[in-house]
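TEACHING EXERCISE
Course module: macromolecular assemblies
Task: Read the component lines below, then compare them to the predicted structure of the full complex.
Student: A.B.
Group: 4
Components provided:
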Amino acid sequence: MRTALLAWLACIVALCTPVGAVAQKYPVRSIKIVAPFSPGGGVDTVARVIADPLSKALGRPVIVENRPGAAGTIGAALVAKAPADGHTLLLGTISTHGIAPSLYARLPYDAQKDFTPISLLVTQPNVLAVHPSLGVRSVADLIRLAKARPGTIAYASSGTGTTQHLSGALFEAAAGVRLVHVPYKGSAPALTDLLGGQVQLMFDNLPTALPHIQAGKLTALAVTSSTRALRLPDVSTMREAGLAGYEVTSWYALYAPARTPPAVAQRLSSEVRRILASPAVAERLREQGFQPAPGTPEQLGTMTRDEIARWAKVVKQAGVTME
Amino acid sequence: MDLLANLATGFAVALTWQNVAFCFLGVALGTLIGVLPGIGPVATIAMLLPITFHFEPASALIMLAGIYYGAQYGGSTTSILVNLPGEASSVVTCLDGYQMARAGRAGAALAVAALGSFFAGCVATLILATFAPPLAELAFKFGPAERFSLMVLGLVAAVTLAHGSLLKAITMIVLGVLLGLVGADPEVGRMRYTFGLPQLTDGIGFVVVAMGIFAFGEIIANLERGDSREVFTKSIKGLWPTREDFRLAWKAVLRGTGIGSLLGILPGGGATLGAFASYMVEKKVAKDPSRFGKGAIEGVAGPESANNAGAQTSFIPLLTLGIPSNAVMALMVGAMIIHGIQPGPQVMQERPELFWGMIASMWIGNLLLVILNLPMIGIWVKLLSVPYRLLYPAILVLCCIGIYSLNNSVFDVGLAVFFGLLGYVFIKLECEPAPLMLGFVLGPMLEENLRKAMTISRGDPGVFVTRPLSLSMLVIAAVLLVIVVLPAVRRKREEAFQEA
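Instructor-supplied answer key:
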């Protein structure tokens, strides 16, 4: 009887403990990772690969909740307004935390002020793939052809303001050429029309384009990252192909709402880094074309700031805005 | 011979007891969610995706595929019984299926739908096994210009869906197109009629509109009928189709299977058009088109066969090229990636057990569906004897759960309520919602492909008539339009279709 009473007292004391002690108690219930894109896509896959080991590490269930819509900004806005106790996290991307701040005139959140960075998770290059009928074998060929026929070669993207689109816009600026941008609703229909030769080229995510490159249906001219891709060692980078300063790398990262206790953020960050370093998880991500890229909260904070500044320029150059 | 060897490989995979069990689990679950309004295959497969981590890849894909085509079976049940289409393709089934149920012939409608679907599923799977690679190439011939012309043809055909005034039908189609265009402009990102609501950025969901207009609208309208609210049980005329039904239906099933198989291969919207196209064809070839919209069995048999055939052949782009042709297929891509299989043209060679195992499982699945569904008909029909005061709140709750589960969004539920009121207004004005739904589905695709085709051709509209496939579809559309608009024909049409 007395032990039971003591246990109850202990519980009450625990409940009354001031906020400062939250870190020791964290987590007190299940944790939700909001994946702001549809199930089955890259963001969803990465969230689920992380969720399982994270749940084992924290001793509470980690649930992935898909809140798709408006290029990930709906899910991001939701987490921005969630309680800052580390129980609601966001799988943010280059889209929600790099491009959207410049793209949307009225974004329902501030990508820097409303979030506490936790850790960068993975990066992924795009690949410049062309339909064989265009008859170009290198980036130099393509630039030559585009200069000879300005505004006639069409590139597909998975939507206005996506990395595929802005990779193209950046290419136009860097190479001094003019292409026609054709936005699709997602990567799959864009790839279909590229394979059918309805459009001539595309800067697609590497894993989706890779099988078609290997089957010889598409020609890979260059990868957009600063280093060559593991899966396409013979394909040069844009820099090697002569476009100095050209680099586009998609990235996914984990964020918590602003004012999350620093101890909670640090705890989450070190767990996530440990998980990404484990061979099983890293191998699983690599299989799907992602490069694990763990980092500290500080590094992600700096990176978010730099990316926002960088894409602001590209978005302005490309002249796109979403109201 | 190759085919037989391949099929042997496939059946060796599909007939293991685990895989038959997974197949059964898939189709049973598919039937269940098809029957539950609003909870579609997309939401279900999304929820089950993480569980399939732990299965063998072939078992996981067999189960997920079973959910998809099982849901096509189940979806027809609610359309026929309570006028509730869960998917774009079952909107058409409502037209005559619900009328048959009202006339006490729900059993016959359900049986014909199940048998038609079974036949279509078997034939389409055979097509898939035999001609998948060459058919996949057909998808590439369809560029933006061809898709635009196909949508034009679809919209012109939508006029035939209505059996009331021509003017009202056209108005509803246009209204549907306009509703479909709500959201961010696909090219420049300008917001159209979003009223500053971020939830409208991606447009209005199909299920939100369909549930609102069909289910909520119908329920509101029934409430004001007071004591005279219908109960179907008064006149149930047997559970099995009559000889006459079979005589009328078998040709419709054949035509529906052909149309559905062909359109199912096309990426984006093809499969949806199948059911509509089949209905239109049945109405055109019928000796007495006036029976349509009043419970013509061909109006159930054709479209149901078409949508099931389309469900099978829409796997062709996925299995042969790794390209998903709709949201469910996109989830299947996700499932393959989770199992470390990068979908693409190499899957057929590198993982033949997966490719042929899935195809073989579709026959087994279709057979299981018929075995599962035919005995259920009696139970479904009994459901109609549940008093409305119990049935309606149950439908409403299930609809709301279904709508919420799509995007985990309360906003969508509210929006569906708005469309419910709109649906009530349509009933009062005697405007039919089916043409609106087709306009709603095709409108955004029409716009998207028009603008894409014009962008690629750099502003030259000639692209629609210089490409032979596109030109032939536009010509057919023009001929159809002339038939509908010619005054003499129109008078005849009104005589035939105007309900006295």
